[in-house]
Write a structure and sequence with these properties.
It comes from Reinekea marina. By secondary structure, the protein is mainly alpha-helical. Helices cover 81% and strands 0% of the residues. The longest helix is centred in the middle third of the chain and has 29 residues, at 47-75.
Length: 113
């Protein structure tokens, strides 16, 4: 979705396309960090350890997103900060909404095995 939206916006305004691409990459980096850290103890019988790793991963993800968007908004004056923040949070929300669709089982037989 990041690339599709960035290409569509680039036809209208090149800077908007680059801003959306930057915002999407920041969202992807934050989510990748979260996935790596939160799933570290996935399947562990120690529920506290799973919850602790998920909460630390969430804090780290948002720190990455906030620091990166602030750095990009301050250093690249040509980018529109509103478009940058909207793309980061919009693409992040879209990814969270699509996650159940992307990871669901492909058939009923796999659910019972």
């Amino acid at each position: 979705m990041t690339i599709v939206l960035a290409v569509l916006a680039a036809f209208i305004n090149t800077q908007s396309g680059m801003t959306i691409l930057s915002g999407g990459m920041i969202a992807i980096c934050g989510q990748a960090f979260y996935n790596m850290r939160a799933l570290k103890h996935y399947g562990s019988p120690n529920t506290g350890l799973v919850l602790l790793s998920a909460s630390r991963a969430m804090w780290g993800k948002w720190l990455i997103i906030i620091a990166a968007t602030t750095a990009v908004a301050v250093t690249i004056q040509e980018f529109n900060a509103a478009v940058l923040y909207a793309s980061v949070f919009g693409l992040h929300t879209l990814g969270a909404l699509l996650l159940p669709v992307l990871v669901k089982k492909s058939s009923k037989d796999e659910l019972y095995n």
